[in-house]
Amino acid sequence: MYKKLIIFFTIFFCLLEIILSILIQTVPYQYKDICCFLVVVISYLYSLLLFNKTKDYLYTHIGLLFTLLADIFLVLTNPMYEIPGVLLFCITQLFYCLKIHLVIDSKITRIIHIYVRTFIIFLLLGITVFVLNENSNFLTLISMFYYANLVTNIIFSFYSRKPSFLFSIGLILFACCDLFVGLTYIDNIYININNNSFIHNLCYSNIDIIWLFYVPSQTLIACSLFKQKYKSL
């Protein structure tokens, strides 16, 4: 009976996220932020339903919690508080790092994971300082730290005993979302994107491309806990 309830709530959760995704693209601007925030709230609440005592669950659940906290600063507040929001997202990716490291299937791969992660972090930070020079600041540096961890998480999420493809795809969509966040932020500040380019048209189209990626990313990350819970019943 409980298994059937879990399936029912999972279907209901996915339908809610689809509805919210449509509303984000269609409702008047004054209601949009509420719909956006509901996406992460519902994802977090759904993860509570799938509670189990494994570290894998705990790290994913805490990651969703810090995503929720980050979006308080980046979605609900006006103006947004970018630094605390990005710092909280950094913590999200660090907990996902712990989750991934936990299930990597060999000691050698775990060592490689640590070295590759460290290399990518310092590489992106170095490139940021080199390219931006005096224009680099704390926000750009923590953003690169965040993105370096996200990219590394995507790579190593496939190197486990039983890779969770829902989680991996969720991270990929997360990265796509943040790529467009970054492009819209740096446009006219650090670079000028050609107004006639495909990238510019995507960033500033009538479709909110950021949330088009973000909603399914959070949905899939939360749903990645379903199989583990279902098997434990």
- Rg is 18 Å
Kindly state the number of beta strands: 0
Largest β-sheet summary: none
Order of helices and strands: HHHHHHHHHH
User: Strand portion, in percent?
Assistant: under 5%
Question: What is the helix fraction of residues, given as a range?
Answer: over 70%
Number of helices: 10
The residue ranges in which pLDDT falls below 50 over 5 or more consecutive positions are: none
Q: Which structural class should the secondary elements be placed in? A: mainly alpha
How many individual domains? 1
**Average pLDDT rating:** 91
Shape call: globular
**Distance linking N and C termini:** 10 Å
List keywords for this structure.
79% helix; mainly alpha; globular; 233 residues
Brief synopsis:
This protein is mainly alpha-helical and 233 residues long.
Task: Tell me what the structure shows.
- The protein is mostly helical.
- It has one domain.
- The chain is 79% helix and 0% strand.
- The chain contains ten helices and no strands.
How do the strands and helices of this protein lay out in sequence?
Layout: H1 2-26, H2 29-49, H3 55-76, H4 82-103, H5 107-132, H6 138-156, H7 165-186, H8 198-203, H9 209-223, H10 226-232
Helix pairs in contact: 1-2, 1-9, 2-3, 2-9, 3-4, 4-6, 5-6, 6-7, 7-9
